[in-house]
TrEMBL record:
Function: Specifically methylates the pseudouridine at position 1915 (m3Psi1915) in 23S rRNA.
Family statement: Belongs to the RNA methyltransferase RlmH family.
Subunit and partners: Homodimer.
Compartments in which it is found: Cytoplasm
Protein name: Ribosomal RNA large subunit methyltransferase H
PANTHER family registered for this protein in UniProt: METHYLTRANSFERASE, RIBOSOMAL RNA LARGE SUBUNIT METHYLTRANSFERASE H
UniProt KW RNA-binding keyword: no
Pfam families attached to this UniProt entry: SPOUT_MTase (PF02590)
Length: 157
């Protein structure tokens, strides 16, 4: 199963990049992971929030195929423990899902067209984090999920 982590904007802070790289390297042993950073919109001062979300939606939807199972990282999404997230990933793998696409939107969230395309929504916390931090948290949780699935000692109860 291929996993794509699709984000709007780049990770700029070196310490976050270093952490993300650490988990991406570790994930190579478990799954094919592709990181796709879409460019941030330029000259947004003249655009409303809705116009920005619509332009981001165009970029996001171009990167998603009809067969992809799309999960939005969204504050209103399902809240799972690490074990439940591992079970979710494992279930998708067993059910012959060939491609999971996890999506982090821009600063204002997602356009309705992206919500319409999504198969699931996942919340990493009830708290609000920067989009850059979410990238690190997600890659760590994805790594943790695979170690749980494989019964490896990374995760402690």
């Amino acid at each position: 199963m291929k996993i794509t982590f699709l984000t709007v904007g780049k990770t700029e802070d070196a310490y976050l990049k270093e952490g993300i790289d650490k988990y991406v390297k570790r994930l190579k042993y478990y799954t094919k992971l592709e990181l796709v950073d879409l460019p941030e919109l330029k000259n947004t001062k003249a655009l409303t929030e809705q116009q920005q979300k619509a332009k981001e939606a165009e970029m996001i939807l171009k990167k998603i195929s009809p067969l992809d199972h799309v999960i939005l990282l969204d504050e209103k999404g399902m809240e799972l423990t690490s074990k439940q997230f591992a079970a979710f990933i494992d279930k998708k793998s067993i059910s012959s899902t060939s491609s999971l696409v996890f999506v982090v939107g821009g600063p204002y969230g997602f356009d309705p067209s992206v919500y319409d395309r999504a198969n699931d929504k996942l919340s990493l916390s009830r708290m609000t984090f920067s989009h850059q931090m979410i990238r690190l948290f997600f890659t760590e949780q994805l790594y943790r999920a695979f170690t749980i699935i494989k019964g490896e000692p990374y995760h402690h109860e």
